[in-house]
Amino acid sequence: MFHLPDGRVCVMGVLNVTPDSFSDGGLHLSADEAVSRGQRLHDEGADIVDVGGESTRPGADPVAEEEEAGRVLPVIERLAALGVPVSVDTMKPEVARRAMAAGARMINDVSGFGDEKMRRVAAQSGATVCIMHMQGEPRSMQASPMYGDVVEEVRAFLTERAALCLHDGIQKERIWVDPGIGFGKTVEHNLSLLANLDRLAGMGYPVLAGVSRKSFIGRIAGPEDTGDRLPGSLAAGLAAVANGASVLRVHDIKETAQALKVWGAVTRAR
Ligand code: HH2
User: Fold this and answer.
1) Contacts of 269 (CB under 8 A, 6+ apart)
2) Residue 95 has what pLDDT?
3) Which three-class secondary structure state does DSSP give residue 63?
4) What is the set of domains in the chain, with CATH numbers?
């Protein structure tokens, strides 16, 4: 289990051990490189490091189970041994099970714990879970996302999945929810969700927002290159926090931690 820090926003650092992730793909392919990057994310202020071995960017191809496990397990084992809190970003129950056995404390499933086996793994291992909303699947999700009322539909989905998790033995204090920014959503859908995060926070679970370097920032403000999207990422992250997010999943830890400290100081001075 992973506990949120008291009285401040939690920062989750992104660590992709993949050749094709949209922002850091191919950067930390060896276990050594990935472990030192994970340690650095932690040193810079990440409360937890989210290790993924399968890209979920739009258009990404699925990765076989053994391949994914081979990418993430050695990294998780070594980071956990170094005392770095780790979550595993996976849609596969067997990868999640082995990651928890290797020392992970949390399972981040972008398919939202719809698979009963995944809920069983989480229940039995004591993991904290992040239930994310996605419309469709990564390969095709951005083709033509469609909603009536996007906020209401995402809220209803997360409520239903949280109920399944509770039913299968995952206690309430181990559940987070996430609107899944960019997962089967247009720019307008993303903006509606970020503007109305308070409606998701009203469900009573911590809300995670993953906005860092995502394409809606490029669409709104211009930068094509993901590495040029830090200012927009900080703005979107702070807007998410102002509207009820308790956790930000980000690539740029130092910069996000600084922005959150200043934002928090101003907020507390009211
Ligand atoms: N976004 C990505 C991956 N996992 N998990 C949660 N809970 N929320 C998110 O918004 C989220 C996520 C996509 O970003 P990234 O990991 O940087 O890229 P890729 O999926 O290409 O590896």
Assistant:
1) none
2) 98
3) coil
4) 10-268 (3.20.20.20)
How close is the Cα of 56 to the center of ligand 1, in Å?
Answer: 6
Mean pLDDT of each 10-residue bin along the chain, 270 residues long: 96 95 83 96 98 92 95 98 98 98 98 98 98 94 92 98 98 98 97 98 98 97 95 98 98 98 96
> How many angstroms separate the CA atoms of 37 and 43, rounded?
10
Is the beta carbon of 154 within 6 A of some atom in ligand 1?
A: no
| Residue 104, φ and ψ in degrees, nearest 5 | -65, 155
Q: In 10 A of CB 30, how many CB atoms?
A: 11
Cβ–ligand 1 distance for 27 under 6 Å, the answer no
Q: What residue type is assigned to position 240 of the chain?
A: A
Looking at this protein, which amino acid is placed at residue 132? Answer: M
| Residue 132 three-state SS | strand
SS3 call for 238:
helix
User: Does the CB atom of residue 18 touch ligand 1 within 6 A?
Assistant: yes
| Residue 213 backbone class (left: φ over 0; alpha: ψ -120 to 50; beta: rest) | left
- State CA 215 to chain mean position distance: 16
